[in-house]
Automatic annotation (TrEMBL):
Catalyzes the irreversible transfer of a propylamine group from the amino donor S-adenosylmethioninamine (decarboxy-AdoMet) to putrescine (1,4-diaminobutane) to yield spermidine. This is Polyamine aminopropyltransferase. HAMAP family: Spermidine_synth. It comes from Anaerosporobacter mobilis DSM 15930. GO terms for biological process: spermidine biosynthetic process.
Amino acid sequence: MTLMELWFTEEHTKNVRFSIKVDKQLVSRQGDFQRIDVFETKEFGKVLTLDGFLMVTEKDEFIYHEMITHVPMAVNPDIKKVLVIGAGDGGTIRELTRYEKVERIDMVEIDREVVAVCKEYLPQTACKLEDERVHIHYEDGLKFVRKPVNEYDLIIVDSTDPFGPGEGLFTKEFYGNCFKALTERGILINQHESPYYENDLKAMQRAHKHIKSAFPISTVYQMHIPTYPSGHWLFGFASKGLSPTKDLNAEKWNGLGLKTKYYNTNLHLGAFALPNYVMELLEES
Ligand code: SAM
């Protein structure tokens, strides 16, 4: 007798699929906004998916969470007040809480159930959500960001893709309100999709167009995430004045002595050196 093999499969395009062999399904729960699944796998450890889209794997999450956090923190290591939108798995919060100078983190997550599932099944990422500087608000980030003015040194948008609950976090209104919510030395980092496949690159061009209309400095940086569509992923860097490369404070950041697995200050500079086709996509947008 042969037992049926179980595979998680995500459609990256109509013609491309990405599959991971699953040992066991640990949980499948319908939250208020999306279906939440966690799988145990040999290759990637535990894997979190929302509505069938892969969010986090234990094996490669360090790349995403280090790059979304340490890049802005190395440009301004004096950041004190941070707004994080989304991020229910806790990985971004884990990295931010490593900075003693950070005094307060407001995390705005739309789906309470994602946080509950991650606390139970993904302690690798959800391990610092109880830090006393972390204040979790269960709200839509699009609405939350309408209120603050000149309040945050850093906003990190660690969201799902631009459809479903995450759609509003890629709009002109949202980025305009982020600008207003940031202090003079403020930085916005956002999940910026992939430049590779047609669907993803259209979303990334739309996001760039809107951010560019709200911020004087706006660019993207790249990293390699094996489990995301095409493996080639971008984050957006926007600010009221700070340059992601000229203002990199490598000496101060290295002086903090933080141990990282992916990020370093040489890689920081390299991540902003973009392939020609990506520069062209940004110019067209
Ligand atoms: N690393 C992931 C990725 O890009 O695939 C994102 C991780 S995190 C799990 C994304 C979180 O954003 C989800 O928990 C989702 O509930 C949350 N989210 C989506 N739309 C939101 C919104 N409008 N306001 C606040 N949180 C939102």
